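Moderator note: this is an archived Q&A kept for reference. The question asked for a predicted structure of one protein chain; the sequence and the answer are reproduced below.
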Amino acid sequence: MITNHLNARYIVAILALLFTLGGCAPINLQSGEPQTADVALALADEAESEEAAQRYLLQTADRFQAAGAHKEARTILQNRRFDTTVESLKNQYLLLAMSGVAALEDRLWAQQLSETLSSSQFQQYRADLVEQALELQLATFDLAQQPMKVAQTLIVLKAQPLNTDTKDLNDRIWQALKRTSSQVLNDESQRAIGYDTQGWLELAIILRSPGMRLEAQSKAIRDWQYNWAGHPAARELPSELSLITLLAQERPEKITLAVPLTGPLASAGAAVRDGFMAAFYTDTTAKDFNIEISVTDTHGKPFDTLYEELLKTSPDLIVGPLNKEALAAIAGRNAMPIPLLALNYDDSGNEPPARLYQFGLSAEDEARQIAERLHAEGLKQVLALIPGGDWGDRFEQALLAGLDENEGTALQIQRFFRTDNLRAVSADLLGVNVSRQRAIEVEQTIGQNVEFEPRRRQDVDAIIMVAQPTVARQFKPLFAFYFAGDLPVYSPSLIYEGRPDPARDRDLDQVVFTDIPWVLDEQNPLRSSVRSAFPNMGGQLGRLFAMGADAFQLSARLPLLEQVQGSTLDGHTGVLTMSEQGKIHRKQRWARFEQGAPKPLPELVEEESGDNLEQMTNPTPQNAAGTPNRE
């Protein structure tokens, strides 16, 4: 089976074999081997011909890679001498370049190289090298953010006599097409040649229709199979599509929603309930099923006891509880007789039992997404303002992990409370007080006053500001006061109240923040349709309403997210995926304050993924079907 992972030592051995058997014998331009790329490039100038010089440089780059000196090899391979590669050496050059790209994870080099790579390049090598060349080529296209080229390469692979698993290969092609934008798919469909390629593109395009629910997708897949009966994917559907056709006929019909409807969390529980029911009522496919929804108030009841009581009613799925304490009371069970979609996350670190799924508005997801955005924009060294308390502790931990994974560094993290002197907090964060103290020490040393202009620290690329709007509106002007008005500022959704308020939010201009589609998408049909019925569903309650709506959509798709790697759900709270532990993670959208109002931002190239096939962000408002049992 072809895998995505390359054995580095095996590749080195293969590349060495290539240069030994491929006519790239050592050229002794000078006794001894050059220890740096610069020396090798200088020696190459002494070669008797351009072909001899390039052979020598490729041999030297290969030796550097074998020794793990990939940066030295890159210096050689990116030299202008290879702007025009001798035809007989081109395949060897490309294999070494792809190996360097993969080893260094060099996205820019990958983008440059992908422009010269054809989908069939891996076929140019001997049989014993084809599989390794294939994986290097796929890795290069992945790093270059070219999922369409990944798919095209894998389609070409179908004709290769390799020991490939058909199901696995179709899954990989499908996942690549999912990551491809609709525009690219449409453009490629206009010029695609070949039955296999045309069939794959048509399948991907028809499942992009806005508002397409699971049942409609199932019908579209069956229709495509009928029309493309001879296509390899029609005979062996990708796992995700196969599961969609199955799930369309097998969804939970008896659902119990267990949330607090009295007590201190009553308003939050009601918002989740209303979102859940709104999503149910606008799902016309529910008429094909005998769906029954019962709602139970969890306030004042130990959830482990309540769960046992609910089991006696034989539901197909229980959704809840909403608070962490209630979830902790049941997360330690050895097994879940009935699947449970919890509306929060268990932080105990214990292995969750099977059929326990966890979904919520996790601050940790936002922290990781901020770290990814900073990396994509090349901002590596940051300062962070994070509120004190347990919530801030979780955010800080996730932020540090995200920065570490994305080659970022937190130069300083300043924790604060609302009652703190925010001017002093800002000055400490930006190093202004250090600058001032340095001047005082100089005055004391020389015994006279000196002219002094405070300065902020100069090693910062960006500021991460985690603060509620009332506090953030004070911090942002203080950054400018302390000479940091030029630094970009990034924030989680905490900074935005959920409704445009230009008069108050002008002080937040140019702050970039992440938030859920429900808040940022003014064209959301469900939000438009329920606005009159739920006029107060803005701000945090609006986010909980959206979470409830997504919980209903998840109820039919949990097996899909769990069983098919790479499957996603485009929901009101973000693009949803599931970890191996059953935790639902979200990828939100981005916006920037301009003239006091949030302006949605496009995704960066590095973050782009194709329009998701499960178009849950914009479900078409439809008539209610079925009568839920409101207990």
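Archived answer notes: The chain has a mean pLDDT of 85.
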